[in-house]
Amino acid sequence: MRFVRRWTAPPTIVAESLLGVPDALLTALQPGRPASGAAVAAALAGSVAPRELATDPPSWLLPEQGKSFRRVLATIERYRGAVLADPVGSGKTFVALAVAARLNRGPTACLVPAMLLAQWQRTAARLAIPVTLSSHEQVSRGHLPKAARGLVIIDESHHFRNPRTKRYRHLAPWLTGRPALLVTATPIVNSMRDLAHQLLLAIKDDALAPHGVRSLHSMLAGGCAVEALGQLVQENERVTEGRPLRRVQRSLPDETESAATLHCLDLLGQLRLSRNEAIAGLIRGVLLRAVASSPAALEGALRRYRRLLFCARDAAQAGQPMDRAELRRFTREMGDQLVWWELLPGNGTQGEIELDDLSQLERQVREVGTAVQQPDGKLDRLEHLLSENTPTLVFTAFRDTVRYLRDRLGHLRLAWCNGERAGIGHTPLARDAVLGWFRGPVNSSVAPKHLVVTDVAAEGLDLQRAARVVHYDLPWTPMRLEQREGRSVRYGSQHAQVEVIQFALPPELERQLKLERVLARKARIPAAAGIGPNGRHIWRWRAELAERFRSASAQSGVAVIDSSTPGLLVGFALHHPASPGALASTILWLAKDGSWSEAPAEVSHRLSLAAAQQDVVVVDPALLREWLALLAGPLRERLTLVRGRRWISPDPSSATRQAVNRIQSLIGDAARRRQPTWLAELEGALAFLASGHTAGEKTMVERLVQAPVRELGELIRRLPIQPFRWEGLEIRLTGLVVFRPAQGSSSPLASAGANTPDRIIRSRRDPDRLDQADSRQLPPHAHAAQPARPNR
Structure pTM? Predict the structure, then answer.
């Protein structure tokens, strides 16, 4: 058989055939077919639903934990990192191990606090999931797992919120190129920077650029948080259903406590502390906290202050500066309070501490020591509560107070644990044995009912037997409150309700410490980011919208409804050929003056109005074109943000700029020498430098600046490969709802500014019938089968 090749002349394009368009971007926007407001509202709500990987969770996860499992998997697949921020006591350990079993073939590296190593080992063994465990303390010493590959789990990741710590500086480079799951119910402790530093351990700074966030660090460091943060931080709105409720009360001090407090404040007022106000404030804070706790805590704090003065005196006599570690040891009880050591003077510390205080301390220690056996109104309040025989956890900030309560309330046979030691009454016992009494039901009549602990027992432990949590000492952070209460407010609790009692400070002491004010202020920080029980949950609205409109029949198209406020509710998604699914889906409200908003409250309100429209109306083509021309503005702004700038970070670091200059110089040299392989590697390095970085990648940038020329080649070859840049993005509309005003017509469908009124083309009784002739009213590009990319 012979094949005849026929030549066909290419089409001729003449100037008369070209049509002018007001905006090239409009050629890519395809509104779709007419639809009811209810159908388009359902499509828009579904387009922004949290992404979940379509995989079945293991059978040992609870049904409500399955959603966290699927969302975390989808987040790690897209961003190579995620924060699992489900509430304390909701089983995050099980969810994290389920994710590890799904992603890793070999052992999973798990970095957990030392006190939780045994608990993680038991849980992983019971589930038959191989793990390699390392403690946070080992990470601080630079000891990290060597054999484990794949996903890394970091439990209680809020311990890695400060990049100045050794543990952070060791972990960040080690995590480069590894996916990580950060597990914490309290990712924000003191500021939103805490969350930024944790995210940057595994996630690039420009990860949310398609959602309109140029830099994670800049956004959170500026105290802002947007709903797009929910793409990275997963907090399941359903996991609280199986946990007990909390009933919070305050226990107020009486007049005797106020009198005792005033006496202690008079004693402390006689101490000069330091000529440096920062150091004086630090020492004063420790002593005031001790006053708030117990006479024994104050006696212990005064003794430690006396030892600090002895060290300062000895150093001064030897002509040496005092070791700052001595000051750190003195403030160890304030471990949950952020102390900016960098702001304290680095030299001459012994000259800043008032050695004259030694003459006062001997008398004060003796005087406070006698008060340990005197009547104590705060102690009486606790004794009254414990006499009710409700199993109770009592939290205090001082080990001296643990001993004080054990000795003064010995007739109640208290169990106690201070991290280093544990026991029942005066009998020392193994820590696990003591805590085991409070992990489950106990039938023995001799089992202790109450447990007194310091905050070392406030993270990760399951103490479901307790029906009451007492904050004998208030901590400095809401995070610590949540961690404490989560020991019993968790899955597996034996109680439908857990009572929480906070011991308030005497007014005189509160005026100086401002503890409750600090707690209230810090509680607003995670709430502003949408995290925690009091959070605004700025990203939950996506899941709530999807659930709310789930029963409606969704159709991506154009709807028209009458409204007193004209505008356009529009959904659009950014797609990239190298990424499965949409990179980002957005709903925004576009006003007639061109201003626009993505505020959840505004969008939710407009969706509700659209959902009430069941009829299908064809929009006037001229009106639709006007709205699309106005829509081009915010769409172009989003595209410009994502792909139109050289730097995603709004303020590249000095090291990044120096590295870019160095690489560009090498590129020019490689081009002159005609070295194509080396030139390609240098261009890859330049692409890496121009992108957002993780915390570990920032250290690689610094090495690029400092490394000698002979080591640059090897260093550049070890740089992470950029999966893709933001070029090649396309916008697809997911739905449009035109809000038009009725103009002097009794018909609710009167068109705004159209010569021919729009008509209903599909009735509520016959939803499948569509008048094909009426569809011609749509713009020509609305009938294209596939979306086209905008002209560039």
Answer: 0.79
